[in-house]
Write a structure and sequence with these properties.
The protein has about 550 residues and is an alpha/beta fold. Helices cover about 25% and strands about 20% of the residues. It is elongated and about 85 Å long.
């Protein structure tokens, strides 16, 4: 039977046995008993960086990203593979699963070789494995005498999750297929004798199952019993879909966390069922990020596959979002509130967004600033902070790499004190304004009068001003004195208050290493009520990232 032209190589790979397509699979490890793999030697520990999120202050609603180093004994660790089926009713889910499977197979092979137990859990597919040694091994395990309550049932939430709001709307089932493709895919599944609503019959053949060592089960009581028999204390979850099965199955993250296992999600070896046409109206991949954040806040930490495999974490080929890090550390203009709200409303379809907030108890500390090492651009809203040398070096390295920076309001005096030397053990960056921002901040006029905004001469055609009606913009913050701009800075907008000369309030510049820079001083908390301000900042971030700005910003 001919395949529809839209199916593509990745889906063929996932369904290779079904469609008799000859594709090269990752080489499996030789079958071996666990004791033969580790006999006479001590297995090297898994050296993991567990990422979680902790609230900056009680009831703040803002979270630091926290890393913790842990060494896990592989002999006390199980990797659970959740619902990596051969086929799925959602075509895009089938495609993404097939794309991810080779990397996951390498991860499983590496974990197995180091001594971890691999548990394959393709739900509702046990009939395909009734005589498989890995299935029989699960059935033969002594039933635990200490089964947790409801370990055999789906878990919809745990008490800690009640502290937060679930971040996405998945009530439509989360399918993100093109409707015409989906209909044709359903027809193909039906023609092949599969139920278009539940076509899975086994785990994808792209994942090797070691008949001599692995376990196959979709039963929570069986899996818990096997773990108890093997002395498993640590559980690693991979598979799909993280907002449904990976969280909720009897062997999923919630059950493992609430019943005392040290459990982590491999955040780059998972996917969601999320439709971008549903709230919060972000890209599919941003939807996955939001669920991962939810997990890191309320359920368990996460890791990435490169911690076992080396190289870089896995990324879907269609996930082309630049990684934007928003750094907020100021107390005057509430950008710790306005910038996340702006990002949720306007950036979720284009950018992957991370946040760094100031330590509520230590002014000169930016916990989690290390995330800049993985960033493509930064949005800075910091006021007069000096930093420990290792944190300042992260920022200097980011700039030295030629990466773009967007600054708002106090960002032009982000890392310098007012006529003071930094305390011992801290560093400033007194030339930040001149070298990076391109301005010459010296003071500001008194607060009170609104700042009238106008287009700078010759700036009318700049892409950052696309769709921005400067005549309608008003800034409620005091006007900064920033002239003269450094050579090479290009003013885009001017601001004025009565009785004083106009000052640049938005301009572009480049760092000494070529990174694009945009700065605007109009970022008072009340300014973000204006559509033009949101459009201006959205355009600037797209420009800085080398992306054409969208035709319109999202409506509230």
């Amino acid at each position: 039977m001919p395949l529809p032209r839209f199916v593509g190589r990745s889906v063929l790979f996932a369904a290779s046995a079904l469609f008799a397509v000859c594709l090269t699979l990752p080489l499996p490890l030789p079958a071996a008993q666990p004791q033969e793999q580790t006999a006479g030697i001590a297995a090297s520990p898994f050296k993991l960086q567990l990422r979680s999120r902790t609230e900056t202050a009680p009831d703040s609603g803002r979270f630091h990203t926290v890393l913790a180093s842990r060494n896990w004994n592989p002999a006390e660790t199980a990797v659970v593979v959740c619902d990596m089926w051969d086929l799925h009713h959602c075509l895009n889910a089938t495609r993404r699963g097939a794309e991810m499977a080779p990397r996951m197979n390498r991860f499983l092979n590496t974990a197995r070789r180091q001594g971890a137990l691999i548990i394959h859990a393709p739900s509702s597919c046990m009939a395909a494995y009734e005589d498989h040694p890995a299935r029989l091994r699960a059935l033969a395990a002594p039933r635990s005498q200490h089964l947790p309550k409801e370990i055999g049932q789906w878990c919809y939430n745990i008490p800690s999750e009640e502290q937060g709001d679930y971040p996405i709307d998945q009530t439509d089932g989360g399918e993100d297929d093109d409707l015409a493709e989906h209909a044709e895919w359903a027809s193909q599944l039906e023609a092949l004798g599969r139920n278009p609503k539940a076509p899975w019959k086994k785990q994808t053949d792209a994942l090797y199952i070691d008949a001599a060592a692995d376990i196959i089960s979709d039963n929570g009581e069986e899996i818990w019993s096997v773990m108890e028999q093997r002395g498993v204390k640590n559980v690693i979850l991979v598979g799909v879909h993280v907002n449904m099965c990976v969280l909720g199955r009897p062997f999923g993250l919630r059950q493992m966390a609430k019943n005392g296992k040290q459990v982590v999600l491999v955040r780059d070896l998972t996917d969601t069922m999320y439709n971008p046409a549903r709230k919060p109206y972000v890209s599919h991949f941003t939807g996955t990020d939001l669920i991962v954040e939810h997990i890191e806040k309320w359920v368990c930490p996460t890791i990435t596959s490169d911690q076992l495999l080396g190289g870089r974490p896995f990324r879907f080929r269609n996930d082309r979002r630049p990684h934007l890090v928003i750094v907020s550390a100021e107390r005057e203009y509430r950008t710790e509130e306005t910038l996340p709200a702006f990002a949720r409303q306007h950036l979720g379809r284009t950018f992957r967004v991370s946040y760094v907030f100031a330590n509520a108890n230590e002014r000169n500390d930016l916990p989690g600033i290390e995330v800049l090492r993985d960033a493509d651009l930064a949005l800075i809203s910091v006021r007069r902070r000096v930093l420990p040398p290792e944190q300042m070096q992260v920022i200097r390295d980011f700039v030295a790499a030629g990466k773009p920076i967007v600054g708002v309001r106090t960002a032009n005096h982000a890392f310098s004190l007012r006529k003071q030397e930094p305390p011992a053990g801290y560093q400033d960056w007194t030339q930040w304004d001149h070298e990076i921002i391109g301005g010459n901040y010296s003071n500001h006029y008194g607060s009170g009068p609104a700042v009238r905004v106008s287009m700078a001469p010759g700036a009318e055609q700049h892409v950052i001003l696309r769709g921005v009606d400067a005549a309608k913009l008003v800034s409620h913050g005091s006007l900064y004195v920033v002239h003269p701009l450094v050579a090479g800075a290009t003013p885009l907008l001017m601001g004025a208050v009565e009785g004083h000369p106009a000052e640049p309030v938005a301009w572009t510049h480049h760092t000494p290493t070529g990174g694009r820079v945009f700065y605007m001083s109009i970022a008072h908390a009340d300014d973000f009520a204006q559509e033009g301000i949101n459009r201006l900042l959205s355009n600037a971030l797209h420009w800085a990232a080398g992306i054409t700005p969208p035709n319109a910003v999202a409506k509230k």
